[in-house]
């Protein structure tokens, strides 16, 4: 999928069953430079129009994780290894978020996408359902990337795939299922693990196959994706929008996005005042997906990652598009505008986007879940695309990409055999202005979704961007 490795089959790489703990540990050593650049030089490059990533990947001699020159990784947690209390690290590592802890520590909260049976289940003391093997764990990581503690924070749930971080230090873990009475969102407090809140479903956030969620800090409204076929884009408006501990448990309104005619005071020259855009339709949370179907809401292929940054909600559809390689969307709550930011047509560019994040310096990072050696792919506000990391160990997906609060460490999971990595090196410095720029930037010219000249002319007449027109057109709205 990237560089010379594209000619190699994943079977040519080391398989999990044949790798020893020693081999895994060896991959954590070694420090190289970024093509001779210092950290300060790399940071300076990040603010220039020429920044396009960190250069070509360097082959990992241990066949685990290829990274750019100057970066190194450390395996900080692995499925089957003992935690401090004697329990074993659960399997199926997935969504994750990082929080600031005491004494410059980082608190990681991590999902485990187990079902009802697993060799390495989440063994909690206060489960919601005793027959479920999923849940969440937390890791307390020191500034030098050593795990100080590791423990269960939620248990008795099923297929905890992704989720989202709140603004008040908790993690919303989402069940990707509608089986055995499961299919809800739970709020997890890493500082008060396995409390009653952690086993209390937030029912107004819907009963469906949840994937990820993200909150708009300016309004307290949550946006949720669904991993199903078809799937819908939801929003949850809490009755209590104080964004404090316990506020979500007071309930709220669940809606799904639809394309419909909206009122306008400026009649179009082409369609006599008819204008289409995004509207939100109220649902019964206990039958959310069926209501969304019945109300004609937008049907996506299979939604995955979600991330909110600088007024923009980013999400992706992992198997959408003419080549079924995936799409990346962004939604602007302030203008109620949906845009198709990127539609992949080549595996080498992007294959099946999953979890996403905005880096501290403003790039969009996408974790792949495709059929080859999955990667972390970056898109820049300047219109560049690059690869930051590639899984050279097996065909497993990356999951849970997140940065430490100080921006110096990138944490990510390899779902199987179940590894959490800490990655560091000459990352660019934090740049909030560039994060805002990413929210408004056009996609790389070669990757922008194609639109016809006729559609482009219509979009201009309607006062919409070509990306907005592409989103409406791809979802069947006859706007021409």
3D architecture notes:
The protein is mainly β. The chain is 10% helix and 34% strand. The strands form six sheets. A six-stranded antiparallel beta sheet has the order 1-2-23-22-21-20, with no helix packed on it. The chain has a five-stranded antiparallel beta sheet with strand order 11-12-13-14-15, with no helix packed on it. Strands 3-26-25-24 form a four-stranded antiparallel beta sheet, with no helix packed on it. A hairpin with a 6-residue loop joins strand 24 and strand 25. Helix 5 crosses helix 6. The protein is globular and about 65 Å long.
Q: How are the secondary structure elements laid out?
A:
Blueprint: H1 21-26, H2 39-46, E1 57-58, E2 65-68, E3 72-78, E4 93-100, E5 106-112, E6 134-141, E7 147-157, E8 160-165, E9 171-175, E10 185-188, E11 210-216, E12 221-226, E13 234-238, E14 252-262, E15 275-282, H3 288-294, E16 303-309, E17 312-317, E18 327-332, E19 337-343, E20 353-358, E21 364-368, E22 375-379, E23 385-391, E24 398-403, E25 410-414, E26 419-424, H4 432-440, H5 453-462, H6 466-474
Antiparallel strand pairs: 1-2, 2-23, 3-26, 4-5, 5-6, 6-7, 8-9, 9-10, 11-12, 12-13, 13-14, 14-15, 16-17, 17-18, 18-19, 20-21, 21-22, 22-23, 24-25, 25-26
Helix pairs in contact: 5-6
Rounded radius of gyration (Å):
22 Å
**Separation of the first and last Cα atoms:** 37 Å
Going across the biggest sheet, name each strand in turn.
1-2-23-22-21-20
Low-confidence stretches: 1-49, 265-272
What is the count of helical runs?
A: 6
Shape descriptor? globular
Percent range for β-strand residues: 25-35%
Please give the largest β-sheet: 6 strands, antiparallel
In total, how many beta strands?
26
State the helicity in percent bands. 10-25%
State the secondary-structure class.
mainly beta
Quick check: average pLDDT?
A: 87
């Amino acid at each position: 999928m990237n560089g010379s490795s594209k000619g190699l089959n994943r079977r040519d790489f080391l398989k999990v069953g044949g790798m020893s703990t020693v081999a895994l540990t060896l991959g954590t050593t070694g420090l190289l430079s970024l093509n001779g650049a210092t950290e300060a030089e790399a940071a300076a490059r990040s603010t220039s129009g020429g920044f396009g990533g960190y250069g070509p990947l360097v082959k990992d001699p241990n066949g685990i994780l290829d990274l750019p020159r100057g970066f190194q990784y450390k395996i900080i947690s692995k499925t089957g290894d003992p935690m401090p209390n004697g329990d074993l690290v659960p399997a199926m590592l997935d969504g994750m978020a990082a929080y600031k802890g005491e004494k410059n520590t980082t608190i990681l909260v991590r999902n485990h996408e187990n079902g009802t049976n697993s060799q390495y289940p989440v063994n909690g003391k206060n489960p919601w359902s005793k027959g479920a093997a999923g849940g969440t764990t937390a890791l307390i990581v020191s500034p030098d990337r050593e795990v100080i503690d590791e423990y269960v924070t939620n248990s008795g749930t099923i297929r905890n795939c992704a989720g989202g971080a709140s603004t008040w230090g908790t993690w919303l873990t989402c069940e990707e299922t509608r089986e055995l009475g499961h299919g809800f969102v739970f709020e997890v407090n890493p500082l008060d693990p396995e409390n009653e809140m952690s086993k209390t479903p937030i029912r107004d956030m819907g009963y469906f196959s949840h994937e990820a969620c993200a909150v708009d800090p300016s309004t307290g409204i949550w946006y949720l994706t669904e991993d199903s076929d078809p799937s819908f884009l939801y929003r949850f408006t809490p009755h209590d929008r104080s964004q404090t501990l316990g506020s979500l448990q007071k309930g709220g309104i669940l809606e799904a996005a639809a394309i419909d005619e909206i009122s306008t005071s400026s009649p179009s020259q082409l369609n006599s005042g008819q204008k289409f855009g995004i509207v939100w339709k109220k649902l019964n949370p206990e039958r959310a997906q069926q209501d969304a179907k019945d109300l004609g809401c937008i049907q996506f292929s299979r939604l995955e990652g979600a991330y909110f940054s600088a007024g923009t909600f980013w999400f992706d559809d992992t198997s959408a598009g003419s080549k079924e390689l995936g799409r990346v969307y962004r939604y602007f709550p302030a203008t109620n505008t949906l845009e198709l930011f990127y539609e992949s047509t080549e595996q080498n560019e992007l294959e099946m986007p999953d979890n996403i994040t905005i880096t501290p310096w403003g790039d969009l990072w996408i974790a792949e879940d495709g059929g080859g050696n999955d990667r972390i792919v970056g898109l820049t506000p300047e219109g560049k695309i690059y690869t930051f990391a590639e899984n050279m160990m097996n065909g497993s997906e990356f999951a849970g990409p997140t940065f430490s609060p100080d921006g110096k460490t990138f944490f990510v999971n390899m779902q199987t055999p179940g590894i959490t990595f800490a990655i560091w090196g000459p990352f660019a410095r934090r740049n909030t202005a560039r994060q805002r720029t990413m929210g408004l930037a056009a996609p790389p010219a070669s990757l922008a979704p194609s639109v016809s000249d006729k559609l482009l002319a219509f979009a201009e007449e309607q006062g919409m961007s070509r990306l907005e027109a592409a989103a409406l057109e791809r979802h069947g709205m006859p706007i021409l």
